[in-house]
């Protein structure tokens, strides 16, 4: 199959070829015709599957041949920039063969006045994070009644980050008659409920991870005591030469501490978390993409919306709080047909939680032991619970039961 068989206009096909879109991925082959037919779309596909182009290409077709105006909602600044850059590249490839299409990308963490200036005269494509979009609406810089197409990208992450109220307010300002495209890597109950409230008789697209289309990611789990993780990480980084590594931790303090510890060991590492200014975030990512930085130690802020070409390794230094976050963390590697490796450090205290992740993501990994880092603790009861991971922290009821048991024992 080629893009030429999907119904795209010659101008969009030419732009796609200039951007090296040669053969459509499964999600692109399924979504593009449905969008061109004017249908709502409910699509589930793993990160790195090419879903951005799946909606951008047909929407460009509709804008160059009609009067579509598109609002794209994304959860993070990084994803907003990534989507905006992809659209910008395709618009440049379109050149002057079609009517001008005005793209504006807006997100928080930067001054709002330049974005207000960009929005003078409106926009044909608006890529936005929910909070900043509402700020601009409150300042009368955006009128949503003119947008007849809505895209929710990374819908599960939008809800996971607490944007439900913002999304509902935005939906109330959009025209009732519109085309809505809903993309998510996972579909927990709250995401399904949101989709049902937004979409009208949608075309449903589910791209299963098969041997043919799943990302080529080698997943590994290494058993190691919590206190030995930093030394093990440093050895793994050094053993893999100069290849870039994205390391995930649970907190911004952890990111700062671990990056400093690695730097002290002669490894060019930097932290990356939500308290950085947008300029600092951009600088870290630019240095990482260029290879000037070998290691970035990040919170889950980097779990979505960051596309690093040929990123060989992702390491879960701290396990993610949920299976959804695990999926998106490891999806930073093995993108666009490349291969990658995702390593998770599993301590005695987090073994139960990692088994839950395995169960929910339908995997079962052999626990590796690295020579010189053999774990001394072999059961969760041997280690005090830090409470830092969902599924490990004792619930209030469990604490009451434990206290009652101790009293009975006494």
User: How many distinct domains?
Assistant: 2
Strand order of the largest sheet: 3-4-2-5-6-1-7
CATH topology of the largest domain, which one?
A: Rossmann fold
Average pLDDT taken over every residue? 86
Count helical runs.
Answer: 15
Order of helices and strands: HHEHEHEHEHEHHEHEEHEHEHEEHEHEH
Description:
- 40% of the residues lie in helices and 16% in strands.
- It has 15 helices and 14 strands.
- The protein has helices at 10-18, 26-36, 51-65, 77-94, 113-118, 130-138, 155-160, 164-173, 189-198, 229-239, 252-264, 278-290, 323-330, 351-361, 396-409, and strands spanning 41-44, 70-73, 103-106, 125-128, 149-152, 179-184, 203-206, 216-223, 245-248, 269-272, 295-298, 313-316, 339-346, 367-368.
- Helix 13 (323-330) links the parallel strand 12 and strand 13.
- Helix 1 (10-18) packs across helix 4 (77-94) and helix 3 crosses helix 4.
Structural key phrases:
410 residues; alpha/beta; Rossmann fold; seven-stranded parallel beta sheet; globular
Brief overview:
The protein has helices spanning 10-18, 26-36, 51-65, 77-94, 113-118, 130-138, 155-160, 164-173, 189-198, 229-239, 252-264, 278-290, 323-330, 351-361, 396-409; strands at 41-44, 70-73, 103-106, 125-128, 149-152, 179-184, 203-206, 216-223, 245-248, 269-272, 295-298, 313-316, 339-346, 367-368. It is an alpha/beta fold.
């Amino acid at each position: 199959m080629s893009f030429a068989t999907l119904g795209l206009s010659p101008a969009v096909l030419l732009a796609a070829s200039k951007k090296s879109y040669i053969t459509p991925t499964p999600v692109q082959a399924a979504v593009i015709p449905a969008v061109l037919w004017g249908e709502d779309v409910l699509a589930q596909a793993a990160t790195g599957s090419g879903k951005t182009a799946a909606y951008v290409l047909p929407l460009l077709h509709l804008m160059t041949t009609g009067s579509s105006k598109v609002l794209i909602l994304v959860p993070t600044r990084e994803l907003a920039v990534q989507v905006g850059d992809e659209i910008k590249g395709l618009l440049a490839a379109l050149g002057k063969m079609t009517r001008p299409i005005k793209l504006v990308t807006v997100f928080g963490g930067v001054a709002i006045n330049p974005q207000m200036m960009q929005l003078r005269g409106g926009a044909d494509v608006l890529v936005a994070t929910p909070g900043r979009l509402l700020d601009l609406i409150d300042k009368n810089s955006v009128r949503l009644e003119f947008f007849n197409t809505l895209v929710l990208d990374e819908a599960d992450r939008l809800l996971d980050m607490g944007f439900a109220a913002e999304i509902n307010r935005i939906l109330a300002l959009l025209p009732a008659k519109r085309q809505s495209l809903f993309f998510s890597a996972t579909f927990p109950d709250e995401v399904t409920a949101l989709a049902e409230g937004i979409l009208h008789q949608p075309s449903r697209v589910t791209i299963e991870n098969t041997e043919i289309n799943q990302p080529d990611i080698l997943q590994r789990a290494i058993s190691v005591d919590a206190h030995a993780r930093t030394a093990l990480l440093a050895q793994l980084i050094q053993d893999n030469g100069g290849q870039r590594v994205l390391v995930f931790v649970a907190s911004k303090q952890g990111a700062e501490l671990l990056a400093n510890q690695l730097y002290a060991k002669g490894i060019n590492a930097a932290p990356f978390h939500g308290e950085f200014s947008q300029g600092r975030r951009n600088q870290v990512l630019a240095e990482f993409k260029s290879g000037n930085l070998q290691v970035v130690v990040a919170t889950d802020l980097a779990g979505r919306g960051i596309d690093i070409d040929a990123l060989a390794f992702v390491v879960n230094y701290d396990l993610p709080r949920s299976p959804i976050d695990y999926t998106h963390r490891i999806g930073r590697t093995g993108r666009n047909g490349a291969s990658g490796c995702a390593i998770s450090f599993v301590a005695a205290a987090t073994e139960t939680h990692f088994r839950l992740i395995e169960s929910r993501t339908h995997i079962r990994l052999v626990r590796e032991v690295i020579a010189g880092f053999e774990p001394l603790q072999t059961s969760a009861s041997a280690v005090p619970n830090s409470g830092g991971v969902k599924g490990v922290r004792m619930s209030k009821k469990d604490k009451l039961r434990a206290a009652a048991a101790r009293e009975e024992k006494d």
